[in-house]
User: Which sequence fits this backbone?
């Protein structure tokens, strides 16, 4: 029985690290700077409700102006 030659693959070079420093992150102040405007604190559920209301208003606004554009196009 004849032996088949073993396939050899060339070694893959290992990339060298260019820096051992950890990745930098931007620093965000823990407290907002003082301004002349007042601020409020709301709960997460209130925030979610406001986001939902905003999305509904945006959709309604888009549909309303689409209808207005269609009506305007029919008048011409």
Assistant:
């Amino acid at each position: 029985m004849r032996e088949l030659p073993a396939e050899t693959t060339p070694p893959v070079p290992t990339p060298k690290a260019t820096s051992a420093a950890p990745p930098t992150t931007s620093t965000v102040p823990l407290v907002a700077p003082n301004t002349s405007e007042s601020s409020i604190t709301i709960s997460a559920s209130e925030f979610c409700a406001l986001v939902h209301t905003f999305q509904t208003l945006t959709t309604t606004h888009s549909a309303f102006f689409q209808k207005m554009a269609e009506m305007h196009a029919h008048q011409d």
Helices lie at 44-75. The mean pLDDT is 78. The longest helix spans residues 44-75. The chain is about 40% helix and 0% strand.
